[in-house]
Amino acid sequence: MKKIVMILANDTTYTYNLREALIKELVKRKYDVYVVAEILNFKEELENIGCRVIDIKIGRHSTNPFSDFQLLKKYKSLLKGIKPDLVLSYNIKPNIYGGIACAKYKIKFMPNITGLGTALEYPGIMQKITIALSRVGLRKADTVFFQNSDNKQFFLEKKILSKNTKIVLLPGSGVDLVKHKILSYPHGKVVNFLFVARIMKDKGIDIYLETAKAIKKKYPNTEFHICGYCDDDNYKKILREFEKEKLIIYHGEQKDMIPFFEMTNCVIHPSYYPEGMSNVLLEAAAHARPIICTNRSGCRETVDDGITGFIVPVKNKDAIIEAVEKIINMSNKKRELMGLNGRKKIEREFDRNIVVEKYMENL
Predict the structure, then answer these.
(1) Domain range holding 160?
(2) Count helices and strands in the chain by DSSP H and E runs
(3) Do 137 and 273 fall into the same domain?
């Protein structure tokens, strides 16, 4: 009889993009795999791999205790009916409420800490509540996977994990090196920069916009591109104004980022968001593009400063501008070499197969 693995996550887009290789390996090893997440995109692709998809609304941004209670009830009902041998979970709510449900039915539980999120990152009442809930949710976890050492240290300092819990440090979600191949480096006269993230303050969009404004005045042969979902009316207005002044080009949310990585000379990620490990930076480096990022966990690990890109202080516009000028004033050959160095680093440290093997070792 096949063993059953259930994967709990926020949505199917996240699951397919970052967990496809893991699911394929589980199916290959004759596990029955269930994905429990809100269905957005890639449902058919997940089913074609060989797993079953169950739609469930997570309410990831909701702080309503009633909706969280309903989520817990759904998890309990699914676990009781399907009786998985193992539950893997990702994201804050699946980790907490999936863990509580697994503890009730004594099911092996292995959550992945994909970043602290703002609720845990910043001191206050929400942090206290989330720490308390995390202690309850993760108290019976068999193994907890972390994507960076700072997050691991936070959980240890706050005594969120039990003494018997095994801790495994992963290189983020890793990168599919077949899908994310080396791209030919652009050789045009215009130097293109790219920001890829949800349009929000903590991802550093304000700093990127200010950088674009300062650089375009001095270096007209530059372009500043933005890809990312925007649901903030104020930022929508700001982006329109910047576009009107020809300071940026906003491309909206993109399902396929490869054409944008292909045309860019450098990716800028001025984030101070509590990342697990930035997938944007991993993919950019895998495509052999230089990176400028901030000196915070989940970002700095992806860069060898001065070799594959530049690491700058958090929330420091002047440092970003200085790094951008270094890229502009390099020869195209040096920029290309910097990107190729980044690719080698990814192959060495962040191959998604490394992540999959870590999971297999701990099943």
Answers:
(1) 4-169
(2) 14, 13
(3) no
Q: Which amino acid is at 150?
A: D
In total, the chain counts a number of residues equal to 363
Determine if the pTM surpasses 0.90: no
Residues 116 and 290: their CA atoms lie apart, in Å, by 26
**CA 179-181-185 angle, 5° bins:** 145
Closest CA to 277 of 258, 296, 264: 296
* pLDDT, tens digit, 9 for 90 and up, residues 177-200: 999 999 999 998 999 999 999 999
H helix intervals, 50-176 = 65-82, 92-105, 117-121, 125-138, 149-157
The CATH number of the domain holding residue 340 is 3.40.50.2000
Task: Give the whole-angstrom CA distance, residue 307 versus residue 213.
Answer: 27
pLDDT digits 0-9 by tens, 53-82: 999 988 766 666 778 899 999 999 999 999
pLDDT in tens, 191-236: 999 999 999 999 999 999 999 999 999 999 999 999 999 989 999 9
Output the pLDDT for position 66. 76
